[in-house]
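Title: Prediction job returns without error message
Component: structure pipeline
Severity: low
Priority: P3
Assignee: unassigned

Description:
Job completed but the reporter wants confirmation the result is attached to the right record. Sequence as submitted:
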Amino acid sequence: MRKQKDLKVAKIEKQIIILNEQLKNKKTKKSQIADINLKIKEYQNLIISINNTYKESVTYVLKTEFVIHFLESNYPKMMSEI
């Protein structure tokens, strides 16, 4: 799960690097600069979203494991029937 997240983020970071290079290029038109900056911001927000989703997923897994362990410890007969 973490590797998938890291790969997605790495691909997006490459796109941001490419866009930043376009901004540095003197041949880039002024009309394109606003569009490039908007794309960079969108990619940055996407990275934040991916990281938040990963954190939420990990938290969900940990909570689920805690509940299962609690039920197994306190209600072994019930859990053996499941």
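Comment from assignee: result matches the submitted record. Residues 1 and 57 are 9 Å apart (CA to CA).
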